[in-house]
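Structure catalogue
Derive tokens from sequence
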Amino acid sequence: MRTWIVAGSLLGLSMVVWGCASIVGKSAYPVAITSQPDQADISITDESGKTIFTGKTPTTVTLNTKAGYFSGKDYTVTFTKPGYAKHTAHIRRGVSGWYIAGNLVFGGLIGWLIVDPLTGAMWTLDEQTTATLSPQTSLQDSPATLQVVLLDVVPDSLRARMIKVREPVTPGSE
């Protein structure tokens, strides 16, 4: 009889702590997204290319870690702001320490193979992503364009690189 009580107690205890990362960890993380300068437009897409969020920095977005059974999510954050080059940052998943060590001590095989992979609690995400945007140069991130300027506004350092197309025509010399 005592063996049945011990076995029942162990079974009950294992049902309470069957996935350590699911109990102690989480399957969604608030991720703070900032940029220098702030007020940049952001777009967050997941690994399938689906847009998850659009907004402006600074902001905090809650992102899920689970993509499927034993499959975690990664995200791409695209920063844009007029006058600055487009910047891309990646939010990559990592394996939770609670999934590895916690299940070793508490959850066992049920936590390792069933509960934590199903809930997504086996994964973690960095809780902050920051981008420093670079000022945009004249041709960076834009299609090739023809710009006409007066010779007076061309700096002397660039005049040596200019190519003379033809001699100027003066009125009456044609």
Notes: The CA atoms of residues 76 and 90 lie 5 Å apart. Helices lie at 2-16, 20-24, 97-119, 156-159.
